[in-house]
């Protein structure tokens, strides 16, 4: 038979021994310290987001097609979100306004989560939050460069049969779009650029 925890007598009353109390509280933080909330991105988050993206993508990220587009102007903070543990930024997603030819759209990314916080559904939650906010704001189309197996559950599919030109080579299998409204991709063609950049 398992022995009962040691008891101490204090003022005529029994209580669980101090060691048992300390041990019990040691078990609790794992449930409390991993609480994650989601909030619109603010300027105070910029440094942490840069650290997360640097760790996730390395210096080579600046040569990629999506980054070249983002260099054309700012992202939309109202549609960009952070995952927070208290004030600590553990993940981030951004949406940037673009034009595909003359058609307005949004470019999703970077999407990144700190390594210690992966496999907890944080990236998926950031995706859903940003996409739904974009839809409610009236946006019709989102494109990105990424792995279709990951993004397909969110509605992204390969862009096939459209004359869409990125500013740098992109693997066709990784060039994806999600129509937030039906047939949003129909007849869309042309060069992809930041919405703040003139010319087609």
Strand count, sense and barrel status of the largest sheet are: 9 strands, mixed
What letter string, H or E per element, gives the SSE order? EEHHEHHEEEHEHEEEE
CATH architecture descriptor text: 3-Layer(aba) Sandwich
* Alpha-carbon Rg, integer: 23 Å
What's the CATH first level?
A: Alpha Beta
Helix percent reads 25-40%
Number of domains: 1
Please, what is the CATH homologous superfamily?
Answer: Gcn5-related N-acetyltransferase (GNAT)
Report the portion of residues in β strands. Answer: 25-35%
The dominant shape is globular
Please, how many helices? Answer: 6
Mean pLDDT across every amino acid position: 85
Structural class: alpha+beta
DSSP strand tally: 11
Keywords: Transferase
InterPro entries: Acyl_CoA_acyltransferase, GNAT_dom
Protein name: Putative N-acetyltransferase YhbS
GO molecular function, one term: acyltransferase activity, transferring groups other than amino-acyl groups
């Amino acid at each position: 038979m398992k022995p009962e925890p040691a008891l101490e007598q204090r003022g005529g009353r029994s209580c669980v021994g101090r060691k048992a109390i300390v041990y019990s509280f040691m078990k609790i933080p794992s449930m409390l310290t991993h609480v994650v909330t989601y909030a619109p991105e603010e300027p105070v988050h910029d440094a942490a987001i840069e650290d997360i993206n640097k760790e996730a993508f390395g210096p080579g990220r600046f040569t990629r097609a999506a980054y070249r587009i983002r260099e054309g102007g700012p992202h939309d903070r109202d549609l960009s979100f952070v995952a927070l543990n208290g004030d600590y930024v553990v993940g981030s997603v951004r949406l940037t306004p673009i034009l595909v030819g003359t058609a307005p759209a949004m470019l999703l990314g970077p999407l990144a989560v700190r390594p210690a916080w992966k496999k907890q559904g944080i990236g998926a939650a950031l995706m859903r939050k940003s996409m739904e906010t974009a839809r409610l704001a009236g946006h019709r189309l989102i494109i990105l460069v990424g792995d279709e197996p990951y993004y397909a559950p969110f509605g992204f599919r390969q862009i096939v049969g459209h004359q869409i030109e990125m500013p740098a080579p992109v693997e066709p299998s990784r060039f994806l779009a999600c129509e937030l409204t039906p047939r949003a991709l129909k007849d869309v063609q042309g060069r992809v650029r930041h919405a703040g950049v003139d010319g087609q």
